[in-house]
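yo, Nucleobase-ascorbate transporter 12 is done. seq:
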Amino acid sequence: MSSSDPKPGPKPGPWPPTPESAAMPPSSWAKKTGFRPKFSGETTATDSSSGQLSLPVRAKQQETQPDLEAGQTRLRPPPPVSAAVTNGETDKDKKEKPPPPPPGSVAVPVKDQPVKRRRDSDGVVGRSNGPDGANGSGDPVRRPGRIEETVEVLPQSMDDDLVARNLHMKYGLRDTPGLVPIGFYGLQHYLSMLGSLILVPLVIVPAMGGSHEEVANVVSTVLFVSGITTLLHTSFGSRLPLIQGPSFVFLAPALAIINSPEFQGLNGNNNFKHIMRELQGAIIIGSAFQAVLGYSGLMSLILRLVNPVVVAPTVAAVGLSFYSYGFPLVGKCLEIGVVQILLVIIFALYLRKISVLSHRIFLIYAVPLSLAITWAAAFLLTETGAYTYKGCDPNVPVSNVVSTHCRKYMTRMKYCRVDTSHALSSAPWFRFPYPLQWGVPLFNWKMAFVMCVVSVIASVDSVGSYHASSLLVASRPPTRGVVSRAIGLEGFTSVLAGLWGTGTGSTTLTENVHTIAVTKMGSRRVVELGACVLVIFSLVGKVGGFLASIPQVMVASLLCFMWAMFTALGLSNLRYSEAGSSRNIIIVGLSLFFSLSVPAYFQQYGISPNSNLSVPSYYQPYIVSSHGPFKSQYKGVRYALRSLSFSQDLQFSYLLVYLQMNYVMNTLLSMSMVIAFIMAVILDNTVPGSKQERGVYVWSDSETATREPALAKDYELPFRVGRFFRWVKWVGI
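structure:
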């Protein structure tokens, strides 16, 4: 051995070497953690020019960011950072980084641990980067008192070959469980959405003056149409497990049409059938417009304007707009209505974590359980004579009651007793709902124009439901073509609802997202079997009669909860955007405030404090067409038409159109959802903001569908129908 050869050194120790004990720790908590204060008041600062996030850097634990594009159910890898921050290390960390290993030593690479997610009972997702859920220091990350499930993160890169569904779901979109599980989960799915299916006809039919028998017939028709349209949607629409039914979006325009001035002189059965035929005509034209919007591909262009900041206030305004109907009707019988509200709150919130055979029965069945208990209590009170007054008959109309004593208790007997409805006894055992059962639809262009605008709002609501539900059950969000196809089919199914006479259109129910998240059931087969059962039940007339006999106070109590849920589900869309951004806060706040304030101006215009209106107080917001601020006179327009040398018939036509614009403007601008949509669309698409700050919906593209077979299998049409429409690129994968 020559003298120039290096002498053998000591055996290399562990790598990386431990820092010297003489090194002084940082002098403050800020230096120790690398904390960078933010003074903007926003939760996440965004550099719009580079698209990168300015994140607080921690020395030992890397902060994760929620994937705003994929939603709450996915987490994205740490975003690329600037030169100042690389792989979670600051410049100071690089300076203090130990030197490379000496020659002759072997550096063993650390195998990347699979990133895991944990989902607790409320749907909150946690993330840990260490083995077995450790937080980097080896300590498990746990929250006491939570039900935890470890879920693997879906691949975020388009180059990944592995694209799997979320493992927290019991069954995925294309899973086919056995017949028993399908039947059980299908019944569970529809029972949890019972309120959304039956409450709308229980509101509009009495408002039209319909009898108890007609209420039962409309309820049966709604069940029949809901089953048929759900089967069509899961097969030829978005193919997501979404129940179709009478959405609350159509309730406000339906009540506005019902309370139009031209219908005030009608009464009895003639009133119900005439108004229903007018509603049918308006729904058919508005739904045909929605079908054209979808199948023509125009919806793909509108999707560029529709983002979470638009969907959130628009959907929330639908629920908030019915505040005048909810508790004022509950107050007709407080001891029944308040108990109903308290029970549904207790079941849905305080008892939501109680499981029986791994099923959270109180959370899933909050509405039917609370309804059954309250109904039974009201029945006992009625049978024991709590609402029986000597010499008073609850079946006698109030106008025919002469006794002052009976007049005092008529309202209490009408709303508190459970035997005032004869829907169950008068309903037949078998009844087949058929098209045009109320007569030939009547077409009025002013009401049809209102429904066309409402169909756009319903499409916006459905877009939010498609995106949120796809993140729960599918491999990836649908393509823009699939969304257009689904909106077009919703328009077609709403035409069917108009022909059958349900009183509203048939669209995707917003409550689907909550039901899927709670039941963890994402199989479309479950929804399809439930739809078949729904069709069978609709043929049994006694089922519709039983549902139609629900007391009106209980209906109002359940609606208070359902509209609150609808509002919360709308606002939950903000989780895809930066909810703490001052831009988004101001846009949502302005949209919600003016969605209540502007309609209040229209509803109160021209009404004196001492005016005696012919409709109940909870219907007054929907009679604005008779007294709104748009009251254009025809004299000036008629003079202008004469000066243009138009014929008498043409002058009359133009005058009729001009005068009916008063009805359209007064009605549309008195609806909260229309004002919220206009405000949100204009502000969100004109106020500068990055895509991540706005939470722009990220839809899949055709290249991804070609590269990933799982995406094509999720959304392709069955029975090879799609191959006949491959040339229609704007409504396919």
